[in-house]
C-alpha cells in the first residue's frame, strides 16, 4: 500500500544560456544521466526490470530506482545484458515519498484516453517532456507504474508532469519495458537541437538548379514548348524534397556532367556533318 503522499515543489534552478547551441547540446548530453532518474514503482516481473536496465544503457541513463520489496534475480540480470551494472547499482526505496524532494516527478501512462479531469493533470507528450528537461538544469524522476495497475491516482496527483504515450485505441497499453524504451529513446532526439541540423538549400539554389536543368534539356533537343512545364514540375519536386546542401551539390554535379556530355555529343554530330 502507498502511504500518505506529500506535495512536492522542488527548488528552482538557474537556466543555462542557449546563445551557443553547440555548447547547450554538449551540456545537455553530459549532465543528462546525472539529472534524470528512472523509477520503477513496485515492478513485478524480472524480465521487465532487466529490459529497462538494458534500455537505460542503450540511451545513456544510469540511475535506476525501484520501490517496494524488489529482489533482483537471475532473469533480470540476463535480460539486462550490457546494463547489468545499472542493476547492481540500483537504489531500492519504500515508496515515491522517499525520492529526492528536489526532483520534479514525471508520471507516465500508456492509456491515452485518460482525461485531465480524472487525474487532475493535463497530459503532455513525450516530446514536450524532453523539451522541458532540455530547457533547464533541474533534476527529474520519471515514474513507470506497476505492470498490472499502473500508477495510483494519489501517486499521479503529487507528480509535476503527466506524460501519455499514443497507441492503438483498441489496445493502447504498452508493456513496462516498451514504454520505457519509447520515452527514453526520445531523449536522444531531444539532445540534438533543430538549429544543428544540416542546412537546407535556399530559393536561389533551387532556381539555379532548375535553370541548369532547363539548359541541359534544351541542349539535348528536348522540345522547347515542353521545357517550361517540366521546370514547373521540377520546382515542385525540389520544394517537396527539402534538399540539403550536400544533396544539392551532388545533383548539380550530375546535371553539369550530363549537360557537358550533351554539348560534346552535339559538337561531334556537327563536325561529322561538315
Structure in words:
The chain has 274 residues and is of the alpha/beta class. The chain has 2 domains: 21-196, 3-Layer(aba) Sandwich (Alpha/beta knot), CATH 3.40.1280; 203-273. Helices cover 50% and strands 11% of the residues. The chain is built from 11 helices and 6 strands. The chain has helices at residues 21-35, 46-59, 74-80, 84-88, 116-119, 126-134, 153-157, 176-190, 203-219, 224-241, 245-273; strands at 36-41, 64-67, 91-93, 103-109, 139-144, 161-164. A 6-stranded parallel sheet has the order 3-2-1-5-4-6. Helix 2 packs parallel to helix 3 (74-80). The longest helix has 29 residues, at 245-273. Mean pLDDT is 83; it is low at 12-22, 24-28 and 112-117.
Number of strands: 6
The CATH architecture of the largest domain: 3-Layer(aba) Sandwich
CATH homologous superfamily identity of the largest domain: SPOUT methyltransferase, trefoil knot domain
The helix count comes to 11
Mean pLDDT across residues: 83
Instruction: Output the radius of gyration.
Output: 28 Å
Overall morphology: elongated
What is the strand arrangement across the widest sheet? Answer: 3-2-1-5-4-6
**Which class best fits the helix and strand makeup?**
alpha/beta
List unreliable stretches of 5+ residues: 12-22, 24-28, 112-117
- Helical percentage: 40-55%
N-to-C order of helices and strands:
HEHEHHEEHHEHEHHHH
Looking at the structure, the CATH topology of the largest domain is Alpha/beta knot
How can the largest sheet be summarized?
6 strands, parallel
Amino acid at each position: 500500500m502507498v502511504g500518505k503522499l506529500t506535495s512536492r515543489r522542488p527548488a528552482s534552478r538557474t537556466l543555462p544560456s542557449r546563445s551557443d547551441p553547440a555548447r547547450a547540446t554538449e551540456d545537455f548530453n553530459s549532465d543528462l544521466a546525472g539529472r534524470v532518474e528512472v523509477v520503477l514503482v513496485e515492478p513485478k516481473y524480472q524480465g521487465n526490470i532487466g529490459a529497462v536496465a538494458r534500455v537505460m544503457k542503450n540511451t545513456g541513463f544510469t540511475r535506476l530506482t525501484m520501490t517496494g520489496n524488489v529482489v533482483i534475480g537471475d532473469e533480470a540480470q540476463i535480460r539486462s545484458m550490457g546494463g547489468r551494472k545499472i542493476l547492481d547499482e540500483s537504489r531500492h526505496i519504500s515508496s515515491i515519498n522517499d525520492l529526492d524532494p528536489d526532483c520534479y516527478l514525471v508520471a507516465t501512462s500508456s492509456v491515452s484516453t485518460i482525461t485531465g479531469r480524472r487525474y487532475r493533470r493535463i497530459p503532455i507528450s513525450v516530446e514536450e517532456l524532453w523539451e522541458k528537461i532540455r530547457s533547464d538544469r533541474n533534476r527529474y524522476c520519471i515514474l513507470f507504474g506497476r505492470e498490472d495497475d499502473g500508477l495510483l491516482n494519489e501517486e499521479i496527483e503529487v507528480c509535476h508532469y503527466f506524460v501519455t504515450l499514443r497507441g492503438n485505441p483498441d489496445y493502447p497499453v504498452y508493456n513496462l519495458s516498451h514504454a520505457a524504451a519509447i520515452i527514453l529513446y526520445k531523449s536522444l532526439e531531444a539532445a540534438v537541437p533543430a538549429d544543428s541540423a544540416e542546412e537546407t538549400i535556399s530559393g536561389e539554389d533551387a532556381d539555379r538548379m532548375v535553370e541548369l536543368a532547363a539548359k541541359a534539356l534544351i541542349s539535348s533537343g528536348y522540345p522547347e514548348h515542353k521545357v517550361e512545364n517540366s521546370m514547373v514540375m521540377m520546382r515542385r519536386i525540389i520544394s517537396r524534397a527539402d534538399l540539403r546542401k550536400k544533396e544539392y551539390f551532388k545533383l548539380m554535379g550530375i546535371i553539369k556532367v550530363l549537360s557537358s556530355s550533351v554539348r560534346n555529343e552535339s559538337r561531334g554530330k556537327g563536325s561529322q556533318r561538315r
